[in-house]
Write a structure and sequence with these properties.
The protein is of the alpha/beta class. It is 34% helix and 19% strand. It has a 7-stranded parallel β-sheet with strand order 2-1-3-4-5-9-12, with helices on both faces. A 3-stranded mixed β-sheet has the order 6-7-11, with helices on one face. α1 packs across α5, α3 packs parallel to α4 and α6 runs parallel beside α8.
């Protein structure tokens, strides 16, 4: 359900999108431009670096709302992921304040606060980013989503080979990244403190991968393997209580992929 009318859907804004070239950033940029907004792409390819702060304040000059859909790459494999992500968020908030940005929209992940993930570095890093936002007092909206349909081929759980695809046995409730982009855009208008989003159905990741490959005419077999974290197979990644369930269904998403 779109809620952008709260601020005014027709209002033209200057929106900065951090992670503009990423999986969520690309459709978010496209949607904002389609709706008539001026978009500033914040990415290393555009000469702006969240990790160092290089040209960040300059890029945010005149921006009304910043959307953070970034997934910063570690500058060093030995770097502390939690520290790097927290610093990136701190730098972004500082730059927003300096540039006069009114609001920050941050893309997060459902289930990151589940104790099952207390030793999961990436989720700990996402927790740290949310905490930085909370502690800063900066006006912000957090959009937390379950895994995306596009996770069907994510190397975090999927290994592709010439003759087969190996997939960890996660239980997920995926949402289409296009719906995530819509929610990020809406948050730029509505400015609610938090929304939790998930897809309308649950399935196991190997099934999603198999259906995705079939939709694209790829006949490689999918082999299911156990995950190192039992919680991933037991449903720790499913939608939390009160989450908004947003389509399309897996079948509807796959139809678009086939096209």
């Amino acid at each position: 359900m779109s809620i952008s009318h709260i601020i005014g859907e027709g209002a033209t804004m200057r929106i900065a999108v951090a992670g503009a070239t990423g999986t969520a950033g690309v459709p978010t940029v496209a949607l904002a431009r389609e709706r008539g907004h001026h978009v500033v792409e914040v990415s290393r390819s555009a000469g702006v670096d969240l990790l160092t702060g290089e040209r960040l304040t300059t890029a945010l000059a005149g921006v009304d709302v910043a959307i953070d859909a970034s997934n910063p790459r570690l500058p060093d494999p030995e770097a502390d992921l939690v520290e790097v992500y927290a610093q990136a968020t701190s730098r972004l908030i500082e730059a927003c304040r300096s540039a006069g940005v009114e609001h920050l929209v941050y893309l997060s992940i459902s289930a990151i606060h589940d104790p099952a993930f207390d030793e999961f570095p990436y989720y700990l890093a996402k927790r740290a980013q949310e905490q930085v936002i909370h502690d800063s007092g900066f006006p912000a909206t957090i959009i937390a989503t379950t895994q995306w349909h596009e996770f069907a081929m994510n190397p975090a759980a999927v290994t592709t080979g010439d003759y087969e695809v190996t997939v960890q046995d996660w239980l997920i409730q995926p949402i289409a990244v296009a719906a995530v982009a819509e929610a990020l855009h809406d948050a730029a208008h509505s400015r609610l403190p938090r929304r939790s989003l998930a897809g309308p159905e649950t399935l196991r990741l190997p099934e999603l991968t198999q259906r995705y490959l079939a939709a694209r005419g790829d006949d490689r077999p999918v082999r299911t393997v156990e995950t190192a974290m039992p919680a991933l197979a037991e449903g720790a990644l499913l939608a939390p209580e009160g989450a908004e369930l947003i389509g399309p269904s897996v079948e509807g998403w796959l139809a678009g992929q086939a096209q």
